[in-house]
Amino acid sequence: MQTQQRVALVTGGGAGMGEATAQRLARDGLAVAVLDINQENARQVAAAITASGGRALACSADISERAQVDNAIATIHAQLGPISVLVNNAGIEDFTPFTEISDDNWQRQIGVNLTGNYYVTQAVVPDMIAQQWGRIINISSFGAQVGAPNMVHYTAAKGGIIAMTRSLAQELGRQGITVNAVAPGFIDTPMAQRTIAAAKLGENIDAVLASYPIPRLGRPEEVAAATAFFASEEAGYITAQLLGVNGGTAV
Ligand SMILES: NC(=O)c1ccc[n+]([C@@H]2O[C@H](COP(=O)([O-])OP(=O)(O)OC[C@H]3O[C@@H](n4cnc5c(N)ncnc54)[C@H](O)[C@@H]3O)[C@@H](O)[C@H]2O)c1
Catalytic: which of 118, 154, 212, 237? Predict the structure, then answer.
């Protein structure tokens, strides 16, 4: 029986799915560290959790910078305690035709969407090993499963996350740590709204959504629910899995 309050870290917790996930995990009884490159957004989400009776800490860091990550994790550890649930959610999108992707653009996509997860996970796993209990949930994308034009760099990183999930699950299972991935479809967040506003899909958004078995955008809370399940005590025999939350989009 777990008596001490567990601590969760949600990267990119200042907006979109990360915000919904931080709120959900707080409602599930966890103390939540809301980490975001956008300090003010992280502060607001943590304040909202605290205002509704939860325990939260805001911290700002760019996950693609190892030193910033290590500082943030040390602060969380000192103020909330050892981390036992990690949601690697922070990510950035970009739409560029393959032949026009610059080296800087490629490195930024891989740096945040793949290497950032490596930095954060490596900083957090020692806490989980010490506890012989942990839940890591990595947010990939349906784009990594089906491919997405003009997103070769983004989907390469998101595919890497799926492979990392499976390998880490094998490595850490004996330590009581599960590692799973969620592959969201098209979810109504600031990122999706930017994509729609800039008409980056090259098709009418209504036509795209109408082609889905569940013909609408997903809600951030629906992704948060899947993540919260993987984070739960009951999910202890589920590891190395990839769960699509995508309205039935064919993958
Ligand atoms: N929205 C979608 O349709 C969709 C679909 C598939 C996958 N995803 C993935 O889901 C995750 C969440 O997406 P979202 O739609 O909520 O995005 P969002 O842009 O709405 O929110 C992302 C959050 O991450 C933060 N962030 C960005 N770069 C960061 C960095 N370097 N360090 C720390 N924080 C950083 C942002 O400030 C923001 O608060 C991302 O990994 C994204 O790639 C989104």
Answer: 154
**pLDDT in the model for residue 2:** 63
Q: Return the pLDDT at 200.
A: 75
Q: What is the DSSP-derived secondary structure letter of residue 189?
A: S
Which residues have C-beta within 8 Å of that of residue 198, sequence separation ≥ 6? 95
Report yes or no on 27 lying in a domain.
yes
pTM confidence score: 0.98
- The answer to whether 68 and 47 have CB atoms below 8 angstroms apart is no
Using one digit for the tens of pLDDT, what is the confidence trace for 135-186?
999 999 999 999 999 999 999 999 999 999 999 999 999 999 999 999 999 9
The CATH number of residue 57's host domain is 3.40.50.720
Counting the structural domains of the chain, the total is 1
Beta-carbon contacts of residue 41 (< 8 Å; ≥ 6 apart)? 14, 15, 19
- The residue whose C-alpha atom lies closest to atom 30 belonging to ligand 1 is 62
The predicted model gives 59-86 an average pLDDT of 98
Look up the domain containing 49 and give its range.
Answer: 7-245
> What percent of the chain shows pLDDT beyond 70?
98
What is the CB < 6 Å shell around ligand 1? 11-12, 14-18, 36-38, 41, 62-64, 89-93, 112, 116, 139, 141, 184, 186-187, 189-192
Is there a domain that residue 86 lies in? yes
pLDDT in tens, 198-243: 887 777 888 989 999 999 999 999 999 999 999 999 999 999 999 9
